[in-house]
Amino acid sequence: MYKLPIIYTIAPLLHxxxxxxxxxxxxxxRKRKEIMTVREANAEVIERLQKAEVFLTGAGRASEHIGFLxxxxxxxxxxxxxxxxxxxxxxxxxxxxxxxxxxxxxxPSEAAEMARSGRIRFASANDYHAVGPxxxxxxxxxxxxxxxxxxxxxxxxxxxxxxxxxxLRFGANGEDVIKRLKWMEECLGPIMSEAxxxxxxxxxxxxxxxxxxxxxxxxNRNKACTGLFIRKMAPYIxxxxxxxxxxxxxxxFFDGNDHTFLNLSMGLSKCTMEAAYGVPGSTIVxxxxxxxxxxGIHVSGLGEKWITAPAPYAKGNYFKGxxxxxxxxxxxxxxxxxxxxxxxxxxxxxxxxxxxxGITPRECMQASAAMYSxxxxxHERFRIPFMGYSGTPLGIDVRKVLDTGILPVINTGxxxxxxxxxxxxxxxxxxxxxxxxxxxxxxxxxxE
Length: 448
Prior knowledge:
The chain is of the alpha+beta class and 448 residues long. The chain has helices spanning 3-10, 17-51, 89-102, 108-116, 175-199, 204-212, 223-239, 244-255, 260-274, 336-339, 354-357, 361-371, 398-404, 433-447; strands spanning 54-61, 74-77, 121-124, 130-131, 143-149, 155-159, 202-203, 285-291, 294-299, 307-310, 315-318, 331-332, 375-384, 390-396, 410-415, 423-429. The chain has 2 domains: 51-267, CATH 3.90.1710.10; 277-447, CATH 3.90.1700.10. The strands form 5 sheets. It has a 5-stranded mixed β-sheet. Strands 10-9-8-12 form a 4-stranded antiparallel β-sheet, sandwiched between helices. Strands 11-16-15 form a 3-stranded antiparallel β-sheet. The relative contact order is 0.14.
């Protein structure tokens, strides 16, 4: 919109009215060509997203599948890159818990000193084709799910879900948290690795498409997808060489954790979106995440360049005894779900989620409906029954966000800002508009 005054400022300096009109016609033609170029680029991105077929291919030790974790005392975290000094309190607490879990430190205090002195290396999980919810800490010994986008050949990894409440990802780091992580490493991970060898690759795209029609939005409501996944895997878990008690514990853990599929959904979205990175001229957002210090996005036309702004706070429903004054800033990689047409963009399919995040079922549908104004397409596989089987809004367009003033809606868990408390609520968070302004400026500079 700001280009018209520039044209009209230059036009009077030309020698004649005809020359001025010619200049304006040429400028209009250039503008039409530019728009077509962006349109074509965005169409290419949408095609890649629609054609993605993501499979869960296995499970294994993180250090064996993520190169950064294979040497020294190294941890991955959620969001854009961040140093220890700038980490929010919940992420620092999770780092300390991971160091104790790995045996690098005897207690969280010693772990904090190690991190402060630079004896622990940090990197963004996103920069290594991985993601993690909330603090998103991935340490070398943790089991990870492994994914492949069979259409385009790219791969991704994500941690196993710990359940709700006092968990490492929400900043809790007590003995109960460490004990659960050890069980996941020594029992859950190996059993699921063997079960997946027996079952073969599992189509997560298919599970999510079915789950959306059963009341999930595959971010904060995963009841149906978790059930579909357990139903698929239970026979193969029973066939593993594990003992009866171990198999019982695994199935009991999955049955008691409706968020089992959250991490699998995140891997699906990460593996889908990375196939759309680097399309020149595209204005479609391919990643959204936050580390509790900065909120970051990737845009296809800008490749893997981070565009960041200060992390926002979520607003929503707090558990009894807690309020906004207790909250940590928003953090997590799970916001990649929204870039893939899931989460907040699919809440019209999950009116039951409303109570958990502090909005009404009607507001769930309204939130999804608003997202069509800032996206480029409807998802061909993820369809919302309550909205006439419309596909979920897909392909956040930086230009449309700025033109409409409508920000992407994200649903999220809320962590306590103090150590060893964990989750204290859930709600809605919006990205800072600054990331879209910065991205548009960079895109325009690249076009000139």
